[in-house]
Amino acid sequence: MVASSQYLTPEDYLQLETESPVKHEYFDGEVYAMAGASDGHVTIAGNLFALLRSHVRGTGCRVYISDMKARIEARNRFFYPDVMVTCDPRDQETDGYKRFPKLVVEVLSESTEAFDRGDKFADYQTLESLEEYVLVNTRHQRVECFRRNEAGLWVLQYYLPETAVPETATFCLESIGFTDTIAALYEDVTLEPSEEISEA
Asked: How do residues 73-86 score in pLDDT, each as one tens digit?
């Protein structure tokens, strides 16, 4: 991501973002241009959006793909989650961003994985509405679901394809009562190769 040194208020940022051909995320006055995503990244996000759109139809919940911003007011941030679900009617009052998501999904990229797992997750945790934060891998068929329990602690559950019958392995998004196969999530996806570490 490329940073701009000019300080912007949230209102300035929102206005400029409506006119910009490039998407930017906002960090307490600074904006960072977002790089393009890989084929696998885009396909996984698209697959999940299609599955969730059918699932939430008629429930009052809305699912959004990567062009919708999430606003984290406690940290003065705006992010573009790969997939986001909100069921809060207050989110229909804001057209360009949502403040009360219950589910956020990030598809991991090599350049952003550390941030998605670290500071970005910490920022998302300040959203009281958020029940589940999900990371989807592009190098392996692996889904990581972080869920907020009754004590307010985040508990991790992994979903991996079963070795014997991988096409029947499922993953679950408990925040919205959704279950489907890992195969459906990764349909038409060619996994990205991991970087090999060479020995000297």
From this structure: 999 999 999 999 99
Q: β-pairing, 97-98 with 69-72?
A: parallel
CA angle 55, 137, 119 (to 5 degrees): 95
Q: Are 72 and 97 in contact (CB under 8 A)?
A: no
Task: Say how far apart CA 110 and CA 140 lie, in whole Å.
Answer: 12
Q: Which pLDDT value is given to residue 110?
A: 85
The span from the CA of 45 to the CA of 82, in Å, is: 6
Q: Output the six-digit token pair for 39.
A: 């084929």
Neighbours of 24 (CB within 10 A): 22
* pLDDT digit string, tens, across residues 83-136: 999 999 999 999 999 999 999 999 998 888 989 999 999 999 999 999 999 999
Stretch (H or E) spanning 33: strand 30-33
Tracing tokens 């406690």 back to the chain, one arrives at 74
132-151 burial code (b ≥16 CB/10 A, e <16): bbbbbbbeebbbbbbbbeee
Using DSSP, state whether 141 is helix, strand or coil.
Answer: coil
Contacts of 156 (CB under 8 A, 6+ apart): 144, 145, 146
